[in-house]
Specification:
disordered N terminus; mainly alpha; MFS_trans_sf; about 350 residues; MFS_sugar_transport-like; two-stranded antiparallel sheet; globular
Amino acid sequence: MEDEELAKSLLVTQQPGNIRISNGFGSNDTGANASASGVTPVLLLSAFVTACSAFAGGFVAGYSAPAESGIIADLGLSVAEYSVFGSIMTIGGMVGAVISGKLADVIGRKYTMWILDIFYIMGWLAIYFAKGAWLLDLGRLALGFGYGLTCYVAPTYLSEITPKNVRGGITSVSMAMIPVSVSVAYLIGSVINWRALALIGAIPCLLLLFGLFFIPESPRWLAKIGREKEFEAALQRLRGKNVNISDEAADIKDYTENIQKIPEDKILDLFQQKYSHLLIVGIGVMVLQQFGGLNGYAYYMNEIFELAGVPSITGFIVVSIPQIPAIALGSILIEKFGRWTLLMVRSQKIAQSLEHS
């Protein structure tokens, strides 16, 4: 009975003369408070800063392919040593991903972005000044750790600061910077050397570092830890100084209070029978995507083109240019046809490519 009441309170909050749908992510009120769902300069700046973190992460993933031949030639690395450099990012990413949720909950979303940006900057500087494999690998490991944090905190922060009516669009555009920056890294890396490419990779990190001084902390995180005055001030900044935020603030507080009444889940709870279908589908999709060979293809594209007898510059351009419009098209199609349909089409295309390889 208590669980049913809690579930209802998370969904619907009714007041005299006004029904407010409360899903914890903003009000559906009409009328005077509709302006609370508008886009403000502070919101756009916050989305841009978050997009810089996503762009920086994608540049990390795209760096190793165009840099391969230059690094091997300049530092005298063997193929095995360069393979360590290419793959060690994944280890850093796993570590960052594992601790990202807890870190963001303890110190906040904004401070977590400070930390990941420090790792990005240290990583690029280590690669730029590397004279041997050990500093090169250390830099790549730091970049991977920052990327692992980014994959959690960037979409979380965006979803918590944006109004419901623009959340999907802003989040999609900002997180699309990851694949876009991979393409940019391929294009730029095909015409400049690997050290200069590392410095260019640091540019979005510096923009992120500068922008973090001017954006607010997530209001939802502030409400969660009980910093009520700061919570209201941050929400007011995001929605505009002349906007009435009382209803949205009340929604967030109600949602936070109700969530805190729910017992905290443990990792072993995932293995309960009621979660088995979700767990199989979720992990299965991620595993099957990796079987498509995307990381191996992305990290060692230079060598793949050379073995195929294709000039690497031509290959990078051919791969990069179609990706950007494809990302934009995917963002449109995913809203029109849904996630499941596009996932099935993608799986079918992967299966067909494997049959012909």
